[in-house]
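Q: I'm building a small set of examples for a reading group on sequence design. Run inverse folding on the following structure and report the sequence directly after it, with nothing in between.
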């Protein structure tokens, strides 16, 4: 089932499968901002990443003496959520632990995602994790929205850029294959906006450490006729990605509260790189928003 929220400017569609944002269109021009999942390039729109971000070493981890297998980015993107609240301008989706999830992830959880049209051009996305048990749970969460590039006919991928604000030097987390390599950090200085080039993704995503400081990313053409601004209040990391070798007409801006395993990961989920711990009967929240122009 697809849930639709709207205001005078935007129509937003979210599917209960994965609670995935599937469309954001302008009413005045019918301009579509969200990638429409052409399987020739990538068959997703904006998957939600939970309970891990990225890949586990050997796609497995250990907890309490048992080994569990979990594919890249976790299972939430492939399960149906329940719509627990809806109005014209907001919707709340929920996923709870089940016998299916317990085979992959032995923890009890309530995971909610709320989409709200907060202004005429802005969609706010909020994540809420509740631990209903008495013992800690370990998790990561993040978004993976893909945006059409170009957004309008007659332009090219390379006509667009990503600008990062504030302008300062950021630590860049490099990848070795699918794994994080924090021992060999790079740097990224957005003094000059990042012009989109496919070759920049030869080694996968460009990942910046944000240290949970307020950060904004703008994706637009150089003349800024149409684009999107991502506002991050407290994200730990952000990834910029397009699939290398496909010349795909989209780019992803990905807010993350977690990262892939390191090369030397010992497999214990308690020791996982960039993991979040949530004690029993406690709540966790994170949010980000998108402004479309």
């Amino acid at each position: 089932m697809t849930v639709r929220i709207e205001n005078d400017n935007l129509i937003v569609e979210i599917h209960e499968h994965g609670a995935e944002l599937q469309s954001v269109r302008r009413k005045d021009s019918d301009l579509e901002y969200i990638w429409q999942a052409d399987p020739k390039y990538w068959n997703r729109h904006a998957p939600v990443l939970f309970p891990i971000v990225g890949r586990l070493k050997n796609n497995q981890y250990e907890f309490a003496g048992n080994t569990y297998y979990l594919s890249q980015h976790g299972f939430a993107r492939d399960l149906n959520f329940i719509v627990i609240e809806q109005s014209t301008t907001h919707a709340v989706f929920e996923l709870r632990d089940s016998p299916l999830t317990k085979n992959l992830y032995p923890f009890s959880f309530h995971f909610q995602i709320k989409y709200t049209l907060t202004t005429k051009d802005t969609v706010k996305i909020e994540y809420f994790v509740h631990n209903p048990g008495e013992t800690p749970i370990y998790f990561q969460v993040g978004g993976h929205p893909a945006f059409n590039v170009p957004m309008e006919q007659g332009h090219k991928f390379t006509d667009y850029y990503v600008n990062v604000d504030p302008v300062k030097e950021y630590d860049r987390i490099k990848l070795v294959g699918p794994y994080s390599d924090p021992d060999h950090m790079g740097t990224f200085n957005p003094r000059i906006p990042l012009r989109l080039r496919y070759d920049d993704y030869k080694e996968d995503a460009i990942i910046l450490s944000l240290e949970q400081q307020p950060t904004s990313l703008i994706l637009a053409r150089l003349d800024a006729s149409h684009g999107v601004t991502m506002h991050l209040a407290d994200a730990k990391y952000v990834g910029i990605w397009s699939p290398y070798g496909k010349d795909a007409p989209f780019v992803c801006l990905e807010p993350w509260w977690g990262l892939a395993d390191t090369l030397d990961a010992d497999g214990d989920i308690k020791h996982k790189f960039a993991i979040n711990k949530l004690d029993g009967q406690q709540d966790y929240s994170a949010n980000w928003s998108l402004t479309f122009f």
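Residues 53 and 73 are 5 Å apart (CA to CA).
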